[in-house]
Amino acid sequence: xxxxxxxxxxxxxxxxxxxxxxxxxxxxxxxxxxxxxxxxxxxxxxxxxxxxxxxxxxxxxxxxxxxxxxxxxxxxxxxxxxxxxxxxxxxxxxxxxxxxxxxxxxxxxxxxxxxxxxxxxxxxxxxxxxxxxxxxxxxxxxxxxxxxxxxxxxxxxxxxxxxxxxxxxxxxxxxxxxxxxxxxxxxxxxxxxxxxxxxxxxxxxxxxxxxxxxxxxxxxxxxxxxxxxxxxxxxxxxxxxxxxxxxxxxxxxxxxxxxxxxxxxxxxxxxxxxxxxxxxxxxxxxxxxxxxxxxxxxxxxxxxxxxxxxxxxxxxxxxxxxxxxxxxxxxxxxxxxxxxxxxxxxxxxxxxxxxxxxxxxxxxxxxxxxxxxxxxxxxxxxxxxxxxxxxxxxxxxxxxxxxxxxxxxxxxxxxxxxxxxxxxxxxxxxxxxxxxxxxxxxxxxxxxxxxxxxxxxxxxxxxxxxxxxxxxxxxxxxxxxxxxxxxxxxxxxxxxx
Length: 497
Prior knowledge:
Blueprint: H1 3-10, H2 34-44, E1 58-64, E2 66-67, E3 77-85, E4 87-88, E5 91-92, E6 100-108, E7 112-119, H3 123-131, E8 161-165, E9 168-172, E10 179-181, E11 188-191, E12 208-209, E13 215-220, E14 228-234, E15 240-247, E16 257-258, E17 262-267, E18 270-272, E19 282-284, E20 290-296, E21 301-308, E22 312-322, E23 325-333, H4 337-342, E24 358-365, E25 370-379, E26 381-384, E27 396-401, E28 413-418, E29 424-428, E30 433-435, E31 439-442, E32 450-458, E33 463-470, E34 480-483, E35 494-496
Antiparallel strand pairs: 1-7, 2-34, 3-6, 3-35, 4-5, 6-7, 8-9, 9-10, 10-11, 12-13, 13-14, 14-15, 16-17, 17-20, 18-19, 20-21, 22-23, 23-24, 24-25, 26-27, 27-28, 28-29, 30-32, 31-32, 32-33, 33-34
């Protein structure tokens, strides 16, 4: 059976198992009043402003810099993606992950920032807008009188990440193909089709470019009940070069790491069984081990599967090979509570009950077929690095961080961590701020010399900020910042063009 036939044999285009997901049982019996319940909680817990959502596109408005924008960033634009339409027809989704994707543009000039934003016009968004109600169960919510989704496309929210490709901006989800946006107008220009045989296949929200510029990604077929991954190789222009299916543990994987020769995946000990929803069918098996999978980029075949610590990883940083050892930077959770239980708490005011992830390194010995975890106590998520040096040994990893005295459970700081010395260079925005993923912009040929650009929500004042930091001197504070006249929903990932 060739690859094309195998894709068809999987039957993913007609699969409806993705649509159900995890719900908030605390409000399940009061679904008609959930929106009212959220709004009541919002009055008591202004931190919930980050999950309140949006109802319409945002026209361009200009805001002035405090400080001075570095010349290297003039003409650049920061884009951010995340769930935003969470209320429609009087119904509110009960889980953060379910909101329809909304893309922000922060266009930089010497005087300030022009901010605008648009919803991604997915198939789901268009159909539900016409009906003026949510039609399908989401990744974490049960919708009253929901329709059966015939495939993943019906529930594709395009709400996780963004990838600049060939003068386009791809809005990514993790269980279906991305949507193409115009980077200037943010107008949705249709869905990506790599090859007709792959339409309907999962395509993760975390593609990575290697040192040659080629793009790598995967699709987790466990969404459709198969213990397999689809591996994709794309040109720098976003054209499909190769793809292959490989055997994999039947678990859940969100991200992966890239070296010059290998792709590295971690599968947590999550067992999928029966359940009302997708996530309720996932059971944490902490008494069992996780598993590392290493795939050869040259042959697109697995070369190593090795047992590993029980834990969970949403995001990986840089990875490289020295001799027979692979070093992989990761944000490590001791269990999968953040995925299976805790994210839902953003909807009822009980924020921050989950453990934060910590900056860690996974070391894999290819010849001995062993792996071990070198963990730290440094809180870090949404890890970034100077990706000009993907696959090369680098010292600095950037990400969101939490100061020692923060009074809520989210991240209120950004930081760099030197993985060789352990040195932390951080800046806290204070207890009233939730900070979002910092993106690195290089300004010289030296590793990690450049600027960090990120956004943050002051949930007490009700303003979203855009910040610019010198990546080598984070503790000095922002060199420039802009305060918007309102607050935006918290999102996930972004890009800079």
